[in-house]
Amino acid sequence: MDLLRLSERDRRRYRGGQVAMIFQEPMSALNPVYTIGFQITEAIRLHQTVSPQEARRQALSRLQEVKLLPSDDQLREQFRSETTGNLSDRDLSQQINDYKQAFLKRYPHQLSGGQLQRVTIAMAISCNPTLLIADEPTTALDVTVQAGILDLLRQLASDRQMSTVFISHDLGVIAEIADAVAVMYQGKIVEAGPIDRLLHQPQTSPTPRVYWPVVPASIAACGSCLRLPILWK
Question: Which is more confident, 119 or 27?
């Protein structure tokens, strides 16, 4: 299906529903004056006919899926270990619910960059898309947080049988996460193919010249095949 040939009204049915997107800067992608719970449930109710209560339940489930909230079993064990004395099952369930509902009431400025990116991922997968577009989702994050986000995206794609288009200028990240790559140069695709072949046997000169400065040493160990002049020299 060619989405560009659809009307604006028809395209809206696919945006967020069949096709979802994660943006580069999570703080800019989220509205600072609304809670994260409001923003996730708004996305859910926009594409699904559900009650506010069901939307909140789904929002909490997605936050647990992206590992921003502990699972109910983990919370149960945590509260039991922190409490002196015995808690009834009813009291324990109430504490778990209160904890999760309090998280939905947080604002973006109360979360770290990595946490905010997990919120945007939870929002993106909230309507079960078949295609997820990730536009430089780790650029604004430090290395350790970046690794966690990449692992999460890999797991979500596998668990949900979801296709992912990962946009990045960092070939080290691409080498870690991608199965196939399309290289763009001056706005056009100049080469496409499996990641292993593109790294070791590039067919066009822009591929190694553009990306050589970010290729990690472990990949560069293949020899001189990538050692071409850097683009700006």
Answer: 119
